[in-house]
């Protein structure tokens, strides 16, 4: 089947439609093409990159180590690309994804600056009809979403934003040109990963920075450094070992994963382990022990260690008190930083606790909390995303009998998937890194490669066996969703409010929609289901 080259406002028919040209969409396109299927990718942005196209805020950097934050499907690609430092900066990741798109000549099959508005399954023709904001109407046998887990920005509904005389930005929709804060009074709302990365950089440039913090967060030093040529050479020589570790580890990263309980060590041994992990930086503390996220007592000990470090770093005890978190370590997304807590020792930085004195209004001059008004020239919303379901619900996806995904999942209150990849009533729909898959609990490119490879093997199987309709069975998805909930409930994750649980979005139903059983365990389950002739699916 050939690809129609008509663009914008086209009416065409292809084998597969993919939404998104980030890590997921690009690799999916590569594999669909390789399998000989005609494919069209739709992307809202005018370039590739997905989240790395949009998140251009100061200090934006990934928290997976660079040598693992890439594709591993091609040894040639792995060898051709060299990262500059331990944690890749946003511009470098975007450059990498452009390099991939160029190397494999992916752009001709991507419609940029085009948003998919709806997708509906027609039971008669057994095809999906996709409509875009550019007037395209395309039908396809397979409909694949690569919309990302955290790509729908959350700008909280605070009274008065329209009245603000200054400029405002959301970290997830940062302008392409540099925003210059020199000489300005800046306010940052939010202290998650984006806030914690941008605050130290903005503080250095701005005349004054006020941080509006609702919940203090644990963060540990990233200890970033430049890679040497020798290190890069070695990691390339170890391509197969690296790939194996990424594909067969809990979090998709080639790193040390602790093998004993926090409680097995004496206090002295534990202190030594945690001090060493602190010095190593990055994820070392989170993975120093094997039960941090299930063992309440052990978690409290590690959390207390990190709290003591915050108190050591922050000179003003009152500010330190405000910065010390009281949830379980790692249950809100663990954060790694460069000079975050140190930033509060600067004269031009002030921390405001908006849990104690909530933001009441944005005025023409700045932000007014219950304790007073803070005059600002610019406001940065580092307020996160409507995670897991937000981007799927932005598209009107309708399955059999005209039932929408939003209706079926009761607006997220009852998300049900099979393997986080499919959902009953929506035949031939695949959701890359969808809710109830491991996705954000590890290194995304590793999760994405596993999903894309499972999907392409499945599609090849369907083609070879002349299967027209592939659909999760309701009982299989019921079991999977329950399994996901049971696993999550056995951890400390569900004991903390976070974007993982939907708590960051006003009015959003609470639920933990991520598979916590680890990348390695999940891969085995997916492979086993495929090897049993796609157990739990109906193939017609
Ligand atoms: O968003 P967040 P993020 N008034 O939701 C606060 C990935 N990521 O963009 O905790 C006042 O974590 C909110 O407060 P609270 C990573 O997976 C990765 O920072 O809800 N405050 C919180 O402090 C990450 O987890 C990287 O009480 C409000 C903050 O805003 C995910 O993206 C870099 C508020 C939001 O934190 C999201 O991170 C960046 C309100 N009305 C992002 N509403 C790396 O790879 C929200 N907040 C390093």
From TrEMBL:
Cofactor(s) this protein requires = FAD
Q: In which domain of life is the source organism classified? A: Bacteria
**Which organism's genome codes for this protein?**
Lysinibacillus composti
**Keyword Ligase assigned:** no
Keyword Flavoprotein recorded: yes
The GO molecular function terms of this record are:
flavin adenine dinucleotide binding; N,N-dimethylaniline monooxygenase activity; NADP binding
Keyword vocabulary terms for this entry: FAD, Flavoprotein, Monooxygenase, NADP, Oxidoreductase
Enumerate the Gene3D superfamilies for this protein: FAD/NAD(P)-binding domain
Pfam families for this protein: FMO-like
Identification of the protein by name: NAD(P)/FAD-dependent oxidoreductase
Annotated family = Belongs to the FAD-binding monooxygenase family.
């Amino acid at each position: 089947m050939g690809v129609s080259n008509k663009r914008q406002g086209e009416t065409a028919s292809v084998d597969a439609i993919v939404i998104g040209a980030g890590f997921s969409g690009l690799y999916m396109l590569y594999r669909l093409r390789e399998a000989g299927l005609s494919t069209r990718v739709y992307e809202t942005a005018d370039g590739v990159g997905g989240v790395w196209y949009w998140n251009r805020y100061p200090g934006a950097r990934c928290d997976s180590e660079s040598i693992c934050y890439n594709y591993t499907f091609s040894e040639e690609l792995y060898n051709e690309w060299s990262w500059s430092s331990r944690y890749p900066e946003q511009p470098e990741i975007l450059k990498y994804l452009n390099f991939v798109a160029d190397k494999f000549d992916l752009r001709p099959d991507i419609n940029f600056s085009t948003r998919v508005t709806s997708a509906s399954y027609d039971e008669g023709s057994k095809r999906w009809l996709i409509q875009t904001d550019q007037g395209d109407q395309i039908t396809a046998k397979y409909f694949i979403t690569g919309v990302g887990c955290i790509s729908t920005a959350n700008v909280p509904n605070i009274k008065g934003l329209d009245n603000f005389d200054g400029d405002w930005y959301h970290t997830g929709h940062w302008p392409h040109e540099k925003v210059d804060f020199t000489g300005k009074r800046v306010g940052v709302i939010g202290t998650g990963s984006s806030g914690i990365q941008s605050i130290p950089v903005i503080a250095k440039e701005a005349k004054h920075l006020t941080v509006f913090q609702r919940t203090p967060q644990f963060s540990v030093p990233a200890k970033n450094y430049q890679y040497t040529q020798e290190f890069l050479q070695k990691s390339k020589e170890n391509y197969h070992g690296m790939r194996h570790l990424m594909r067969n580890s809990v979090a998709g990263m080639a790193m040390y994963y602790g093998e004993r309980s926090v409680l097995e060590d004496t206090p002295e041994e534990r202190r030594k382990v945690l001090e060493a992990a602190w010095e190593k930086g990055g994820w070392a503390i989170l993975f120093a022990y094997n039960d941090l996220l299930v063992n309440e007592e052990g978690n409290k000990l590690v959390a207390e260690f990190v709290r003591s470090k915050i108190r050591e770093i922050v000179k003003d005890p009152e500010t330190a008190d405000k910065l010390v978190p009281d949830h379980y370590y790692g249950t809100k997304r663990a954060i790694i930083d460069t000079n975050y807590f140190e930033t509060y020792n600067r004269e031009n930085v002030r921390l405001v606790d908006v849990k104690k004195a909530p933001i009441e209004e944005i005025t023409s001059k700045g932000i007014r909390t219950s304790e007073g008004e803070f005059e600002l020239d610019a406001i940065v919303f580092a307020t996160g995303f409507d995670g897991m379901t937000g981007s799927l619900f932005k598209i009107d996806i309708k399955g059999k009998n005209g039932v929408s995904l939003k209706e079926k999942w009761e607006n997220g209150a009852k998300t049900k998937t099979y393997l986080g990849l499919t959902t009953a009533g929506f035949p031939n729909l695949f959701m890359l890194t969808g809710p109830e898959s491991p996705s954000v609990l590890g290194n995304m490119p590793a999760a994405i490669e596993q999903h894309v490879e499972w999907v392409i093997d499945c599609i090849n199987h369907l083609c070879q066996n002349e299967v027209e309709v592939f659909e999760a069975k309701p009982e299989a998805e019921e079991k999977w969703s329950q399994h996901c909930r049971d696993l999550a409930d056995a951890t400390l994750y569900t004991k903390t409010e976070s974007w993982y649980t939907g708590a960051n979005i006003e009015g959003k139903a609470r639920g933990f929609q991520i598979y916590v059983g680890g990348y390695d365990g999940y891969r085995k389950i997916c492979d086993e289901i495929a090897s049993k002739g796609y157990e739990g699916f109906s193939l017609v």
